[in-house]
Amino acid sequence: IMEVVYVCEWEKRPKNNHCPSIPLVCAWSCRNLIAFTTDLKNEEDDKGKRSPYTIDDVKLSHMIHIIDTEHPWDVYSINSGHREVISCLEWDQSGSRLLSADGDGEIKCWAMKEHLVNSWESIQSSSVDGDPIVALSWLHNGVKLALHVEKSGSTNFGEKFSRVKFSPSLTLFGGKPMEGWLAVTVSGLVTVSLLKPNGALLSASESLCRLRGRVALADIAFTGGGNIVVAATDGSSSSPVQFYKVCVSVVNEKCRIDTELLPSLFMRCTTDPVRRDKYPAVTHLKFLTRENSEQVLLCASSQMGSIVECWSLRKEGLPVNNIFQHRSPVVGEKQPMILKWRILSATNDLDRVSAVALPKLPISISNTDLKVASDTKFCPGLGKCFFFTVTNQSVTKKSQIIIIEVQLCFFSLFFFYSCPQLHMIRVSPSMGQMLDMNTLLRHLLFLLEYCMVTGYDWWDVLLHVQPGMVHNLVEKLHEEYMRQNQALQQVLATRIVAVKASLCKLSSATAARANDFHAKLLLIAISSTLKSLLRPHVLNTPDKSPGDRLAEICTKNTDTDIDKVMINLKTEEFVLDGPPLQSLQQLIQWVGDFVLYLLANLPNQGSIVRPGFGFLRDGPSLGMLREMMVMIRIWGLLKPGCLPIYTATSDNQDSMSLLFRLLTKLWLCSRDESHPQEPDETLLDECCLLPSQLLVPSMDWLPINDGVITKIQSKHQLRLQFGKPYTLPGLNPNSQMEIFSRSPASQRMDNLRCLHMGICPTEESKACTRCGCVTMLRSPNKTNAMKQWEQRWIKNCLCGGLWRKIPNT
């Protein structure tokens, strides 16, 4: 069922090779960022003095470490400044901010510095002096997407994934959700901090109930009506597990908290005479999901074993006394209802449970949902949770370190072991069931579609894609996408290309297509940017924008003469000032070079490995290139300096006219995607002559991804070290991947600005955690047009991946 794919550990250990106790807290975000803490006790050195435990001269007391799962060695360690042991970590819904709380009641909010995953800073903090935090959560933003597994065979994304009516915990004027966080303290206090639009913090605290008592464990969930539910226990299995409703509001610029007691429960094991005293402590308390306050998981333990119970809150009719049963009912009268906790399931006696993992998918364990899981054999998110146990034998061994925290997301989980070692585990999608290939592909396709719609990272889904599955998954994903309505296709247009690119990197047979998909992302971005510069000549704009009219005219006009196509356009809509056009010349140059590269390589189309092959049958992309060639031709009349530069063998060669003519012929062959035609011999002959007429550029494709996802498709476990980059093994000279390799003397490219950075760039750079796209951290441009282009990618890469700072070459 489970298989370790990589282990990452610290390079150095103490001299005696003995690890101090490590109270670890871990959290995994929807963007596949992992945060964990280390708090190592001081140990005596050879001279009897106590010194802090350090790794590479970094004191690891009260430290927060953040990594992305694709580059686990690139750890960013934060000296948190917490005075006590960190007890809670919590990511926000976007995965870009992190909360940390400690045993002294201090809460800190961390955010990326310059939107880099390996650079963080504290931006806000709040405190409940001296009152340790036991539970922490961001307020809900009101966004909830339901997952309908029973409709996984439907062709409509709207039926598979539907938006659920769910109110935010607190709203601003106009219904916008207000940001903030909520925490529960050990003394039974609930504290709320609200982030005002001006950056100020609004805080308030209130007791959960009138009689405050000790809270050893707590968890937080949300209801569809905008309320918050807190579950709390004092740690004894003989005491009730209490539930409270918390309502947050803002009255006269002050935060107000109202609490209400909800039905409570006693664990069943305490009512069993055999087990009454066997499990004295409640060690785990979790709601199944943060949006499901009606299902809770409890674990009671002793030193030698544990038992896990799952409970559900249900509405039940209130029994009526016999005196009133013979009374004739009033018209419209309904039986009174009450809320009552009922046990759904319980385990047998287990070894001591050290951690409980619940999936990030919206799960439920009702009988209906479990039947759907059984029928579809789709286990993730339906009745699946993990209990990590430690055997009695290993507890007695001092050399063994108990697993402390586990998180689960789709098909993977991680845990910490030893000093500390991070273990990334691949979890079988079928949970041990034997599945045929079609069923497995359908499950993977369903989760990839869910990631596309929600924006969650699909890294852990890729863990289960074998190289032989890539082609089928890409084709099926495209088929499902084309069945959606036009509006949804526009929303998901770039995201599906990014998913395809990630899939194609997993197989050497499709690696070239991965480069094509990244080139397509850049092409779409440049096209939309250039079209956005166009302005209608008159203010009373018609229904269609100048960009839409350009696309319509270029689609209808199949003339191979670029000047004849220009005649049908309103050239006044293309009039722009000189500086914006000149500043965008590097993007325009990329378009011109790309067209020349594609046409020059058309005669070599038999080689599927060659990058650019995917564009030769892509009618929409060829049409997009054709539209941009027309735009660039018109702008060249206004500002000749913005035109792409070609090195021609003849002085009177009209390079753009030649390329447009050949591009149009190729576009006509693939315009009808259902009935594509082969290029005729005349077109192939003319393309063969291109290298003798124009100097064909060598396109700089994205570098080979230096992450681990392409290296863990096999069954071999990777051994990694924090702070030490993982070097990819040497490539086979005959490998199909060799065409993407770089020689040490090759020019480095800024893949977003389409600029050469030199052989040994001195500028600070950042790289995408997903695709490896590299760009300079600081902008060398002064013009507004290019700054606007750069601002589009300040938070995320073209593919939607996050940025990480990389060292100079």
Automatic annotation (TrEMBL):
Residues annotated as domain Mediator of RNA polymerase II transcription subunit 16 central helical bridge: 447-635
InterPro entries linked: MED16_bridge, Mediator_Med16, Mediator_Med16_C, Mediator_Med16_N, WD40/YVTN_repeat-like_dom_sf, WD40_repeat_dom_sf, WD40_rpt
Name of the protein in its database record: Mediator of RNA polymerase II transcription subunit 16
Record key words, sorted: Activator, Nucleus, Repeat, Transcription, Transcription regulation, WD repeat
Pfam families from the UniProt entry: Med16_bridge, Med16_C, Med16_N
PROSITE patterns linked: WD_REPEATS_2, WD_REPEATS_REGION
Domain Mediator complex subunit 16 C-terminal as annotated: residue spans: 736-805
Species per Swiss-Prot/TrEMBL record: Astyanax mexicanus (Blind cave fish)
Gene: MED16
Residue ranges annotated for the Mediator complex subunit Med16 N-terminal domain, each copy included: 122-372
GO CC annotation: mediator complex
Subunit structure: Component of the Mediator complex.
